[in-house]
Structures are given as C-alpha cells and as structure tokens.
C-alpha cells in the first residue's frame, strides 16, 4: 500500500510521518493542499481504511439508520449515526411520505435521484414496491423535463460521458468505470430525446432512467448496468447559448466523423466487456438509428426499441398475423398502413421513400393527411409513434369510431384483433366486444401524446379502448369510469434484457422481440379486458418480466444464439432466481 501513496519528504513516505500540530491546532498540511495556489497542482489523495464514514457514503452498501448494533460496532459507525435503528420498511414509509409532499413531479425526480446516489437498495425497494406511482417520475413523462433541465439540476455524474474529445481513447474511458462486469448498456447521442428533440449531452437522463428500470422491473443487478451518453455536439440553439449546458458547445458532428466515433465506441465495448454485453441504442435520430442497427446487429448484441417499435411495430404485427394465420408475410403486411408527414405511404411514393418505409407502400390513391387516411382505409387500430402531439384530432377519432361499428366489423373482420385477444381466456365474448376501436397514443412525454385519454373516450362516446405511452388518470364519462392502459416499453425491455442475459445470447433477432410481446400478451386476463385494458397492471411487472425473460431465452436457445449451456429446465424459475432483490444484506 505504501508504494501506492509514495510521496517522499526528507526520505520518508507520507504514511510514516507523524501528525504535527500547527499554529491553529490542526494537523500539518502534509500534502500541500492548503498552501497550494490556484496554479499549483495537488494530488487528490484517497485510500480505503476500515472507516464507517466511507461506508455511509457508498450507495451500494449504505443502509442509513438500518445498520444494526453489531454492524455499527464492526464497521466503526458508532457516533456517526443517531442511536435509533429503523427497519427498511419504516425507512421506505418515511421516504414515500416525504416524496408525496412534493407537488411538482421534477422535485420528486430529484429526490429519488438523490436517494439512488446515497442508498441504492432503498431506492430500488421504493421503486419496486410503489412502481405504479413512481414509474411516471423516474421514467416518462417526468424524465423528459429532467433532461430539459439536466444542466441546472446536475449534481454528480451518473454513467459515462464519451465526447469527441475522447476520440482515440474510448477504451481507456470505459476502463475508468469502476465496475468490470457489465451486462447491459443503454447509450444515447441525445439527438431525439422522447418527443422533445435534440437535448445533446443532457439526454443522459434517459439511459440512467432506463437502466433503473432494467434493475427494478427486470432484476438486472445495478452494478452490471452502464448508462452512456455520446456527445457529438447539439443543434439546439437554446442549449448552445445556455451557460449551464453541460455538453460540447458545438454543432453536431455528422458523416465520417460521427460514424468513426461510434465505430470506435462499439469496438471498445466489445473488447472491454465481451461478446455478450447488451447494448440498447436509445433516442438516436432516425437517420442514424437505422444505420447503426443495420451495421451492428450482426456483430453485437444490440437492439433499438425506438425503431424496432416504430416501423418495427408494423413488422412485428405482420409477423404475428402471419404466424397465426399461416399467410405469407408479404400478404399480412398489406393489412397495415403507415402515415408519415406527407400522408399515406403508397406505392406511387416509393422512389422518394426511405428504405425502411418501402415495404409498407401499398397500392392506393395518394392521401395527404391522417383524417383522409382513416376515412379511406377504415382501420381497426390507430397507433401513433411519431413523437408529434395532438395528431389524433376530434375528427380523426370520430372517423375511426364510425368505421368500427358492429355492422362494419361483421362484414369485414380484421386480423389485428388476434394480437390482443391472444388466448382462450382473452377472446371477445361477443361481436359487441369487437366494435370498439383501439387507440394507442404512444408518443412521449405527455405533451407529445397524439391525444389524451379523456379526448379518446369522449370523442368515441366511450367506445374506444385506449392506451398511451405516458400515463393518464382514469376518466369519468357518461356515468362510467374508464381506466386507460399505459402502452409503455417498460413492459418489455427489462424482461427482454434479462432473457438475453440469462441465456447468454450473442445476437438479437426479431423473433425474440415477438416472443417478448407474446409473453406479455399471455399475462393479460379477462378481468383486464372487462375494464377496457389491453395490458396487465404494472403492479405485477416483476412476474411479467420473468415470463418475458423465459420466452426470450427459449427463443434464443431455439435460434442457436444462446451460449449458457446446458439450457435450464424451467426458464421462468431460472429468471426469477437471477433477479436482483433490494432487501438489505447483513454485514459481517
């Protein structure tokens, strides 16, 4: 140890020097910090001893007032804590009371982040036990506001920041992270944060929030999670002028410079953490997101639930219809129509379309807007994932409702309902159950939602089945209470990630995403449908995640991309046994 702290003064190591009293009665300034001028370099000395003081400041092991009498003696905590001993349950109760006193969601977010930084297990215990209440705080919609104000609320770093300044040194930067066994990385370049646009370096709130859910909802160990922001600049003029902005003050790098940095990053991650580290691309702009996924999906364990749940939603629905009906995929794609900023995607537009849109360009007359498309196509389900708010107008919802009455459906049934009525227990009881249009306003945060729950129920006269990306409160309409569903990717990605980890998967295939969706659908009960819900309650999310993980792992073994052998006999039990639990541990 002595060689580690080698600083020789008069032939002695600093560890050999006796403390000497100074004029003020303190200890002599051995290292010179107090005497140093601003231009003089000092060494940030630190070393570990059996000190309770450092233990209380280690979020991974700190238990606050829950340390027992024995632990306080063994770990030098006497006098550093008040004499009372509290259980974890009582700590949780006190914290929830404190959090509920805040009226502003961002205050709740800041309070929870501070808790995560000082007592990791208590943070996750709080989140798991109160998931329906706290999910909107640590994730969408509040995390969006947190990212917008990240420079102002920033106190201490969470995760790694890799900027253009680190080009050529990314492997060294990864090695600066204290944990060596990383299983899940969420990475963003901040260009398209939720529906809020380019937030640059301040997009770090998204990887931090997502990985909190990997742990709380999916049971992935927090020490195995690594949030990363790649800072290539920002085109947000407001941020560039903001004196508190924490990122590079330059316009975004593009082209060769951008892709060289990303390639170095991907290569360094694989070199440092191995073949089986999961990398989730998050909130990249579409023009980069599709390129990156196409480039690395055959060489790395990667996925992007923004685009594999954008046009990816359409592809997975088409795959499921094909699987259930034995119809060719090319035919089932024709059941699904896409609308972009220029109107209905049709074959006459193919030459001007981006490649990922071309499979959805069907034969039809051009239609310039969503309302015209709804009237022409007469869809059963309307899904919004563009990030543009208020696009499901009163006229659009009324048109959707009018083309989904009992007479229309009895004459022209559609396949898409089979996705939601997945098993015997979940099938519609009568044609009256099938006359309800499904509206899914998935864009986040709440301000970018295509419509509100109240609008959907009111404009459809209570007939719509509604789900949204951000949560909405129950709605009273015509004497009945409607409970909106939350169509949040938090249902899927934590369990999906756990499934990849427990199977030792080395690649992600679309069939694995479909397996996750099928597992989620199997958890929906008739009671859920009777309440107008197409998703199970979030309060059972750990159970849901275990089933999703098992289904994903099973598909990984089936496809030959799993490396953890032999395959466990019961994958659900395997998933449950691998889940991190945040109850306090007893210390020696």
From TrEMBL:
<feature type="binding site">
    <location>
        <position position="444"/>
    </location>
    <ligand>
        <name>(S)-malate</name>
    </ligand>
</feature>
<dbReference type="Pfam" id="PF00390">
    <property type="entry name" value="malic"/>
</dbReference>
<dbReference type="InterPro" id="IPR012301">
    <property type="entry name" value="Malic_N_dom"/>
</dbReference>
<dbReference type="InterPro" id="IPR001891">
    <property type="entry name" value="Malic_OxRdtase"/>
</dbReference>
<dbReference type="GO" id="GO:0009507">
    <property type="term" value="C:chloroplast"/>
</dbReference>
<dbReference type="GO" id="GO:0004473">
    <property type="term" value="F:malate dehydrogenase (decarboxylating) (NADP+) activity"/>
</dbReference>
<feature type="binding site">
    <location>
        <position position="282"/>
    </location>
    <ligand>
        <name>a divalent metal cation</name>
    </ligand>
</feature>
<dbReference type="InterPro" id="IPR012302">
    <property type="entry name" value="Malic_NAD-bd"/>
</dbReference>
<feature type="binding site">
    <location>
        <position position="192"/>
    </location>
    <ligand>
        <name>(S)-malate</name>
    </ligand>
</feature>
<dbReference type="InterPro" id="IPR036291">
    <property type="entry name" value="NAD(P)-bd_dom_sf"/>
</dbReference>
<feature type="active site" description="Proton donor">
    <location>
        <position position="139"/>
    </location>
</feature>
<protein>
    <submittedName>
        <fullName>Nadp-dependent malic enzyme</fullName>
    </submittedName>
</protein>
<dbReference type="GO" id="GO:0046872">
    <property type="term" value="F:metal ion binding"/>
</dbReference>
<feature type="active site" description="Proton acceptor">
    <location>
        <position position="210"/>
    </location>
</feature>
<dbReference type="InterPro" id="IPR046346">
    <property type="entry name" value="Aminoacid_DH-like_N_sf"/>
</dbReference>
<feature type="domain" description="Malic enzyme NAD-binding">
    <location>
        <begin position="292"/>
        <end position="557"/>
    </location>
</feature>
<dbReference type="Pfam" id="PF03949">
    <property type="entry name" value="Malic_M"/>
</dbReference>
<feature type="binding site">
    <location>
        <position position="306"/>
    </location>
    <ligand>
        <name>a divalent metal cation</name>
    </ligand>
</feature>
<feature type="binding site">
    <location>
        <position position="283"/>
    </location>
    <ligand>
        <name>a divalent metal cation</name>
    </ligand>
</feature>
<dbReference type="GO" id="GO:0051287">
    <property type="term" value="F:NAD binding"/>
</dbReference>
<dbReference type="InterPro" id="IPR037062">
    <property type="entry name" value="Malic_N_dom_sf"/>
</dbReference>
<feature type="binding site">
    <location>
        <position position="488"/>
    </location>
    <ligand>
        <name>(S)-malate</name>
    </ligand>
</feature>
<comment type="similarity">
    <text>Belongs to the malic enzymes family.</text>
</comment>
<feature type="domain" description="Malic enzyme N-terminal">
    <location>
        <begin position="116"/>
        <end position="297"/>
    </location>
</feature>
<dbReference type="GO" id="GO:0006108">
    <property type="term" value="P:malate metabolic process"/>
</dbReference>
<keyword id="KW-0479">Metal-binding</keyword>
């Amino acid at each position: 140890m002595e060689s580690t702290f080698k600083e020789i003064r008069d032939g002695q190591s600093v560890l050999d020097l006796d403390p000497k009293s100074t004029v003020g009665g303190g200890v002599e300034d051995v290292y010179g910090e107090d005497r140093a001028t601003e231009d003089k370099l000092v060494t940030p000395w630190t070393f570990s001893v059996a000190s309770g003081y450092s233990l209380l400041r280690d979020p991974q092991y700190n238990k606050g007032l829950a340390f027992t009498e024995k632990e306080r003696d063994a770990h030098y905590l006497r006098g550093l804590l008040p004499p009372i001993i509290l259980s974890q349950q009582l700590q949780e109760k006190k914290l929830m009371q404190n959090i509920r006193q805040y009226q502003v969601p961002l205050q709740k977010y800041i309070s929870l982040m501070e808790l995560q930084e000082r007592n990791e297990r208590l943070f996750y215990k709080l989140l798991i036990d109160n998931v329906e209440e706290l999910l909107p705080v640590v994730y969408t919609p509040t995390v969006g506001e947190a990212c917008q104000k990240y420079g102002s609320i920033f106190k201490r770093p969470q995760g790694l920041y890799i900027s253009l300044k680190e080009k050529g040194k990314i492997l060294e930067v990864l090695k600066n992270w204290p944990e060596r066994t990383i299983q899940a990385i969420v990475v963003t370049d901040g260009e398209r944060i939720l529906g809020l646009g380019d937030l640059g370096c301040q997009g770090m709130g998204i990887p931090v929030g997502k990985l909190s859910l990997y742990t709380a909802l999916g049971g992935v160990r927090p020490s195995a999670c690594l949030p990363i922001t790649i800072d290539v600049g920002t085109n947000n003029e407001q941020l560039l002028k903001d004196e508190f902005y924490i990122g590079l003050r330059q316009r975004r790098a593009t082209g060769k410079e951008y892709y060289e940095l990303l390639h170095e990053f991907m290569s360094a991650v694989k070199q440092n953490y191995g073949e089986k580290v999961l990398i989730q691309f998050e909130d990249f702009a579409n023009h980069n997101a599709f390129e990156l996924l196409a480039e690395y999906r055959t060489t790395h364990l990667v996925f992007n639930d923004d685009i594999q749940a954008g046009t990816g939603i359409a592809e997975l629905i088409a795959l499921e219809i094909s699987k259930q009906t034995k119809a060719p995929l090319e035919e089932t794609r024709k059941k699904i129509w896409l609308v972009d900023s220029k109107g209905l995607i049709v074959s006459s537009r193919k030459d001007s379309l981006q490649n990922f849109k071309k499979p959805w360009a069907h034969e039809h007359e051009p239609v310039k807007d969503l309302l015209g498309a709804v009237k022409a196509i007469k869809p059963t389900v309307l899904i919004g994932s563009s990030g543009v708010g208020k696009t499901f107008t009163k006229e659009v919802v009324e048109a959707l409702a009018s083309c989904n009455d009992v007479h229309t459906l009895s004459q022209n049934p559609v396949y898409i309902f089979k996705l939601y009525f997945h098993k015997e227990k979940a099938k519609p009881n009568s044609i009256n159950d099938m006359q309800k249009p499904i509206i899914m306003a998935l864009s986040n945060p709440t301000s970018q939602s295509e419509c509100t729950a109240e609008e959907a129920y009111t404009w459809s006269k209570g007939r719509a089945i509604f789900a949204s990306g951000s949560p909405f409160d129950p709605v009273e309409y015509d004497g009945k209470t409607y409970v909106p569903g939350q169509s949040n990717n938090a249902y899927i990605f934590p369990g999906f990630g756990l499934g990849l980890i427990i199977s030792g998967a080395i690649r992600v295939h679309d069939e694995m995403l479909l397996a996750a969706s099928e597992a989620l659908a199997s958890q929906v009960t008739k009671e859920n449908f009777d309440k107008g819900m197409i998703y199970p309650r979030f309060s059972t999310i750990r159970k849901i995640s275990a089933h999703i993980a098992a289904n994903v792992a099973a598909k990984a073994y089936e496809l030959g991309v799993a490396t953890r052998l032999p395959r466990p006999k019961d994958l659900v039990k395997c998933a449950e046994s691998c889940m991190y639990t945040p109850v306090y541990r007893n210390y020696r």
